[in-house]
Amino acid sequence: MGLETKPLSTLHERSSYNVADFDVPTGREEEWRFTPLSRLKGLHNGTAAASGTVDVTVDAAPEVTVETVGRDDARIGKAYVPADRISAQAYASFEKATVLTVPREAVASRPSVITLRGSGDGAAYGHIVVKVEAMAEAVVVLDHGGSAVYADNVEFVVGDGATLKVVSLQDWDDDAVHVSHHHAQLAKDATFRSFVVTLGGDVVRLSPSVSYTAPGGDADLTGLYFVDAGQHLEHRLLVEHTVPNCRSNVTYKGALQGEDAHAVWIGDVIIRAEAEGTDTYELNRNLILTDGARADSVPNLEILTGEVAGAGHASASGRLDDEQVFYLQARGIPFDEARRLVIHGFFAQLLEKIEVEEIRERVLAAVEAELAR
Questions:
Q1: Which of 79, 94, 141, 143 fits a disulfide with 185 by CB distance 3.0 to 4.6 angstroms?
Q2: Could you say which DSSP state residue 3 is in?
């Protein structure tokens, strides 16, 4: 008998609010094989005591309502059901959640910034819900920093004809551990734009996902990461097309330098049989700047219908292009400056997508600081 191949969707069919419904990962599972479990400080097996703190403050646009609510709030868990053990642990362990609401047809006059700052030892758990009602528009920034062992879930609920743009910045201290799931649920003709920047932390595992409830949804997921020696930065994306005539585009780029710098990118796109007219593409590029760095890139595309508008994926990891550097040096530019310009060019198209000027300048400065190392 031939080898039986299981569909990609089997990786994503289990979801539950109950931690006990998920086995403790051992590292042999497909969804955990790249993650250094020993460095998660107990987030994966229930031994992480909830004695840490991550302070959440919100500077919201005047049109946006901000609430701090308890676990019994009806809006929590409506868009997303935890899909792995740490996500379920975070859902079971948080005490207060932050809910941002953009009222129907409101257009936020400025970005709303959610600042999360960790302090001290011990684990902390969190939950955020961003709800953009029909025909409304908003920009939301998630700014993570400090020292923490932190697991959380973030739900983005985008209503009919609404537009939500999100910038998530992971700029943790060197000792931080962050495991997070971001889920966007798109209604009819909804637009979702996500830009993820991951720079700091010892181990960061971020899992963005998208689902659609009606035709016309449009999701664009962009990411930028810079991995230094000893860091493990992991991004695991899932876009699940279950209704007709929706669109998704994923573009993530990263640079790595230093011994044992490790980047992991997993891009899963599922087009269900009923999702005719889907248009989707995913791309990952990794620029390896030094010996000793490692990039794992796994794009997966499962198509269960022949009626699609377009579907594709691409992935590549490689070293700095010597010809490009030589071209610049031949015109009198010193090597270090030529190297810097090539790396800036690698990220330039992505950086233009960051619409919040302060964040764009901050990311540019951070990339410069990384190159200076």
A1: 79
A2: P
